[in-house]
Write a structure and sequence with these properties.
Largest sheet: 5 strands, mixed
Radius of gyration: 16 Å
Distance between the termini: 17 Å
Structural class: mainly beta
Helix content: 10-25%
Number of strands: 9
Shape: globular
């Protein structure tokens, strides 16, 4: 049985401000905005090319706004992705790689600025935060590992 990650719930402090950031500033597709009743609203947006969406709103999570760290977007060209996000007014940290050459550590320790020396697939990252401080990572994947 396939099990596909379809939705991630994102804790935000202001639904309309978050909608403005993700839809108007980043240009992500607005899939739904359902104001069900007072205190319960569902907004779903999807990054370009993604099969997984994010949902934010009111009454959806007990997580504090800005506490989600490690959401990851895969891109084929980290430099172009960073340039695009910067053109939208988003501050992007990177590109960087982890000093171990593996997946990045939590926080910003162990980061080495610059792209992976061989530009190895899965080896280069960049990071940005939304208006609440939820942290997103970009990972450059130019060639998928076998079976992926």
């Amino acid at each position: 049985m396939d099990m596909k990650l379809e939705v991630v719930i994102l804790p935000v402090s202001d639904v309309d401000r978050a909608k403005g950031f993700y839809v108007e500033q980043l240009g992500w597709r607005l899939d739904a905005d359902f104001p069900i009743n007072d205190g319960y609203r569902i907004v779903q947006v999807t990054p370009p090319g993604s099969e997984c969406s994010i949902i934010f709103g009111e009454g959806l999570t007990q997580q504090e706004p800005g506490t989600l760290h490690g959401l990851q977007l895969t891109v084929t060209d980290i430099l172009k992705a960073q340039e695009e996000l910067t053109s939208y007014g988003v501050e992007v940290f990177g590109p960087f790689r982890d000093e171990t050459g593996a997946f990045h550590h939590a926080g910003d320790t162990h980061r080495v600025l610059g792209v992976h020396p061989e530009r190895a697939s899965y080896g280069t990252f960049a990071a940005f935060k939304d208006l609440d401080g939820n942290e997103w990572f970009l990972q450059e994947v130019t060639e998928r590992a076998p079976g992926r």
